[in-house]
UniProtKB/TrEMBL annotation, chain A:
BP term (GO), one: transmembrane transport
Protein name: ABC transporter ATP-binding protein
Species for this entry: Kocuria subflava
Keywords linked to the UniProt accession: ATP-binding, Nucleotide-binding, Transport
Limits of the ABC transporter domain: 40-285, 309-557
UniProtKB/TrEMBL annotation, chain B:
Gene Ontology biological-process entries: transmembrane transport
CDD domains membership: TM_PBP2
Entry keyword annotation includes Cell membrane: yes
Gene3D superfamilies in the record: MetI-like
Cellular location(s): Cell membrane
Transmembrane portions of the chain: 12-30, 101-120, 132-155, 175-193, 233-255, 275-301
Name this protein carries in UniProt: ABC transporter permease
Amino acid sequence: MSTSTESTNPGGRRRADRAAAPTATGSSAAGPGNTPLLELRNVGITFKTTTGDVEAVKETNITVMPGETVAIVGESGSGKSTSALAAMGLLPENGRISEGQVFFHGEDITHPSRKRLIALRGSEIGMVPQDPMSNLNPVWKIGFQVRETLKANGLPHADKDVVQALKDAGLSDGERRMNQYPHEFSGGMRQRALIAIGLACNPRLLIADEPTSALDVTVQKQILNHLEKLTKEKGTSVLLITHDLGLAAERADRVVVMQKGRVVESGPAQALLQNPKHPYTQQLVRAVPSLTPEDIGAADEGDAAQEIVQIKELVKEYKIRGSWGRSTQFRAVDEVSFTIRKGHTTAIVGESGSGKSTIAKMLLGLEDITSGTIHVDGKDISTFSNKEWFGFRRRVQPIFQNPYGSLDPMRSVFRSIEEPLRVHKVGDAKSRKEKVYDLLDRVALPRQLGDRYPNELSGGQRQRVAIARALALDPEIVVCDEAVSALDVLVQDQVLKLLGQLQEDLGLTYLFITHDLAVVREIAHDVCVMESGKLVEVGSVEQVFENPRQDYTRRLLDAIPGKDLLEV
Amino acid sequence: MAWYLVTRLLQMIPVFFGAIFIVYFLMFATSGDPTAALCGDRGCTPATKAALEAQYNLDQPFFLQFLLYLKGVFTLDLGNNFSGRPILSVIAETFPNTVKLALIAIVFEAVVGVTLGLIAGLKKGTWIDSSLLFMSLLLISVPVFVLGFVAQFVIGIKLGWTSPTVGAGAPIQDLLLPGMVLGAISLAYVVRLTRNSVAETKTADHVRTATAKGLTPGRVRNAHVLRNSMIPVVTYMGADLGALMGGAILTESIFNVNGIGYQLYRSINMGDGAMVVSLVTLIVIVFVIANLLVDLLYAVLDPRIRYA
């Protein structure tokens, strides 16, 4: 592996690099003599906004050699997707390449003609987009959407060709699948359909924009393996865009790190991970949970702690409407029993649909219990009167996944945090104000933020507000339902540390629902693993991670991206 | 699907009876002495009045009147109106005219409205978009009778392109102008709805993916933007079809169309209860069926909607 850090572009030495970068593109995979397949040379991308032009990407150099996989890593807003999409002419209407040049196999495609662009798309450069839920047209059958790709690029598009494309992407049973609509597919299947579309015309370059970040970790692994196999077979170059450094390092030959629209560091994946030079990359490497197994929860004093929640043979059934008004029962939670220790963090992990959130909702009293019991402090919550529920809700507070959706956009931060205090008639206006400021201090937000509205905050700030609101009533138990899943890795790290600190200071008990095992390792004391409604494994975090008893748990653990990198 | 259709049709029964009852009750409660209108300024002799009351069941208590009317509905014998003509034959004569008029209006607003809305949505933020929005706003703000009289005067009389009024039998060429006037305001709403919907859809992720496949812009527009944008527009037009059939009173009066709106207006003035109730019930049925058709059309446009 070459250790060259070509196209590194840290702040000061830009001028010198500008001339040097194009010639310095060397990659051990392809040899220095070859023409790069894709080359962004000093590219700047500008967006026209109502408040003037914004330069989202500056002086960016990215090179992809034939057959090579290059990953661009960075947090949201770092310009990683924008740079890649610009190469396909897919910038939003108000965006344009304002500087530099883009070359595709030696051809300048910075500002191609419309005709050339249409010819390039699909057959030369394919795309696998980020969100499988929103990237297939809901009103057309899957087969139609694959077929029109083949047709538009002048390839044979009979039924058997469509079936073959689906099969290549790992969707067997293509004859049936092609007649289904996207909403009849699971997330993983949709992503496979999108891969089928992206690779249908055998493009020389595939731009994969966070192809798996919306998927469960086991599905993610399957899909990435499959994508890797396909592109290796076909010799396709891949430009992989991801926020997950572990995943990038595992899958790519070279990694490009972007921050605030600039490339801050790039180089071979292993070298970059083991010896990050730029402070931002160092920060990223430290923040990847799977790469730094450190316990940030409160110290574990063994079994001495009191059991605050006891869940026994808990069952939740939903009615599913069938045809002609008949209904069938669906068991979302199937005889689950476990306990939660006071002052500790219990994590429930599992894939989507495993029933983990349903348990949290029943504990919060947001769903009725079909059978079984939940005892909190020895009291059965299903026997609560409305008044008892009101009191109980002070003691058990939730933090939800989506920080954009769980704050009322019409209320200021101050009012959002103050609301539970008003509802429960705690103190007077003055003491409430003090309490809110105190909470803002605790979650490390400046006090003047209280006057702002949610749309003026970043994702991490919003989640801090949600935490402050959850803590307003001094609860004993906090239910975190995927509370950090929507956050960038650095922000996620900060929020996890904050939660750990709060637990230490206030003796909080957490029930942590997540699909991310790396996060579990970092924060949890006890782990419950769920698979399709059943609890398959319970134990302390050490037991489960070091010595998993169930195949399913092992599969989940194996699927964590970048897991093996530390051991290399 | 079949089950859904059955339940929806069953739901029509209470709506049907409820509407008849409410309208019947309102007519009964509001109109003073219906026979007074029949007899004109000079008044009738008590004997004539009694005979008239017997003929129209006006001497019976309210509920019996209502039941007798219902019986008429089911035996398809609605009786005569105050001019002495069978109500059914009046409906048979006027309803087709209204249907023709409403269909012209809806086709006009669908074809022209969706086209203009699509152009505005695709060109959002340009002068084309702004001028189309301005024109639609202008159209919305002008009362329909002003629009009707101006169109009648300019196109029918000054330019002489069409007949200013609709002749006997309401031939299609005479109905074109009134149809367009009737559909004009809805057209403005359709332009705006389509424009917003298209502008939103064209920035959707799946449209970007379609572009990335290498499709031509025309194909992206027709297959991926237009169809997905039609759902709110179809909802609006479905509700509007009902409104166009019942609410064409002004347009029908201006252009002298012998339709049910015009008949309804006359019957209300005369206090002709049986006639009013029959016409309103007809309009209610049209509304309910139009809504059902819209709901079924949803499933065609958006396969995610399945009725169970």
